[in-house]
Amino acid sequence: MKPISPRRIAGIPALLLSLCACASSPGMETPADHETTAAPRPLPVPIAAGTPPLPGVTTLGLSMPETRIVLRGLPKDIEDLVLSLPPADFRATPDIWQYTVRQAIGGMMLIPRIAERPDRRISMVSSGDSALWIRTFESENPAITGYLIQVRLSCKLVKDSPIQLPEGSVQDICLGYPNARIGSGLRAYRKVAGQAIEDVTAQLTPPEQVLGEETMERYRQLGAGGPFLDDSWLDRVPVARWIVESDPENPLPEDAHTYDAGYLAHAGFLLWNGDHFETRATVPAGLWPCPSERPSCHEEDRFVTKP
User: Fold this and answer.
1) CB atoms within 10 A of CB 185
2) pLDDT at 63
3) CB of 307 within 8 A of CB of 285?
4) Is the pLDDT of residue 1 over 50?
5) Backbone angles phi, psi at 223, to 5 degrees
6) What value does the mean pLDDT of the chain take?
7) Which DSSP letter does residue 227 get?
8) Which residue, 187, 190, 247, 189, is CA-closest to 221?
9) pLDDT at position 153 over 80
10) What is the mean pLDDT of residues 183-195?
11) 64, 133, 125, 135: which is closest to 100 by C-alpha?
12) What is the pLDDT of residue 22?
């Protein structure tokens, strides 16, 4: 898949200023009879979410298959839901969050898992090479829906925000790396009709905890990367998998987590069970298919149970 070309939308400073006009402290207006008096500096905006995110997918901003539905903006229900979430969940300020969400374009796949209420996978890009990835999960109970959401923010956008963030925030990162892209990590949500959406990220076992600090450090010393979410089959089944990839020239030695001859390590499955998200050590083969080019992939994968 080829990445979608980033788009820089002109006029962002003015729009950002208008969107965050309410961020100034109440009662600190600039006196009308002193035009040279500087306007008050906006108060810092909390940027650290209460619940740490989970390692996410690496495919943000990539194009989608030809079966996609082209989107010039998020579907209305998704946009409303996303804008209702705390911007700090995604390391954003309110102005950046609104601008990123409302300027997004991209595509959507419908996944017909439940009749008349398909799941959706949405991949969008926004200004300054920002991106959004959203996967919805329907339930047999029409009142319940699950959401996985991940965002990437561009430093080109962050630097234009007039809202000042606390020390150590993404603004500090962007000062040193103006062309960087800041990932939010993955967050999980559950919505019940008539109730506020619930952040259920903390209810899932992080892959770093599954592997343990000692194992993670051993993998790093052998040239492996950190855990990420393998979403290979999310267009077909409500399951993804956290994995670690080895250095291609240095497979990992066999341990309780490695498989595929040491080229991969298993860090847990992320499953929508029809009512809520859960993490599992194993899943049946029907929930983790083999690719057509590797029909016997399960033979070296002891974490997928056979019929």
Assistant:
1) 17
2) 64
3) yes
4) no
5) 95, 5
6) 82
7) -
8) 247
9) yes
10) 96
11) 125
12) 32
- In angstroms and rounded to an integer, the radius of gyration of the C-alpha atoms of the chain is 21
Q: Torsion angle of alpha carbons 137, 142, 143, 149, nearest 10°?
A: 10
By the 10 Å C-beta count (0-12 exposed, 13-18 middle, 19+ buried), 203 is classed as: middle
* Length, in residues, of the chain: 307
Q: Calculate the CA dihedral of residues 136, 142, 143, 144 and round it to 10 degrees.
A: -40
Statement: residue 136 has pLDDT above 60: yes
Specify the residue for token string 């790093």. Answer: 220
Compute the distance between CA of residue 275 and CA of residue 278 in angstroms, rounded to an integer: 10
Half-sphere exposure of 181 (CA within 13 A, CB side): 16
Q: Distance between CA 234 and CA 239 in Å, rounded?
A: 6
Structure tokens at 56: 């996410």
Rounded distance between C-alpha atoms, residue 137 and residue 125, angstroms? 22
Helices (H), 31-120: 76-83, 94-102
Q: Could you say which DSSP state residue 301 is in?
A: -
Helix (H) or strand (E) holding 124, with range, is strand 119-126
Q: Residue 44: what pLDDT? A: 44
